Structures are given as C-alpha cells and as structure tokens.
Amino acid sequence: MSVDAGLSLQLSCKNGLRSIVQALLSSEWGPHAEGWHCVPLDQDTSEWTLLGNNSREIEMLFSAKMAAKQVFGIRLWWKGGETGGEFLVFESGEIVFSPTTNRVTLDGRVTDVSWYLERLLPVFQRSPGVVVDNWAWRETS
Questions:
Q1: What whole-number distance in Å separates Cα of residue 78 and Cα of residue 69?
Q2: How many CB atoms lie within 10 A of CB 123?
Q3: Element (H, E) at 94
Q4: pLDDT tens track for 60-99
C-alpha cells in the first residue's frame, strides 16, 4: 500500500530565502554520495537531475530559481545516507518536505513523525533570523 506523507513548514526569514536554504545545506541533511539531486531551472517539480558534488552549482541554481520565481527543489538524506526526502522551497517561505527514501515508520505503515520533526525543526529554529511560524504533517494511504 502506498503512503503519501509530508511536512509543510511556513517560515519567516529576515535575511531572505537564502538563509533557509543555507540552514538546510549546513545541517545534518546532505547530498547523496553520488551528488546533489535537484529540480533544474525551468522544470517542474517532477523533473529531477543529478548535478554532481559541487556545492557552488547548488548555490548558482538556487539563485537562478529565485530570480525566475521558481520552486527550488533538492533531495537530501539524513547523515548516513539511508533515509531521505525531497525539499521544495517556495518564494513565500514555505517548505514542503516529502519523505521519499526509506521512510521511517512505527509499525511498517505509519510514519514516525517525531523522527522527522526532531531532525527538521531544529535546523530552522537554530538558524539566526529564521522563524518557524507553523507546521503541519499530513499523511494519507
């Protein structure tokens, strides 16, 4: 049975969206061993590509996506590389996270929401100038 799960965060940031993305990229969430998976410029969020391991490319892509008012999408894995997901960063300060790789569950079906909250909320709460206004978890099967 397929499960659709995800976390929606509404963030406020004094220093712009770059501070949100920097918080993510400097956290314990990181690229897969083979490199960064992102949504390319002028593509919708169903099109992902591998950029390699150059973090400068990520910064350039982010800048281009924000200038074009497009959603910035990046796949990140929790340290160790087994569990990961897709992060979509919207111009409004909303981040939508979908646990797409080895979703952590309580009984094999229900997502362990606490596992994700403990690893995502502090990323932004510790970031200067970033405020978590609200968050919501959704899950359907």
A1: 28
A2: 20
A3: strand 94-101
A4: 999 999 999 999 999 999 997 799 999 999 999 999 999 9
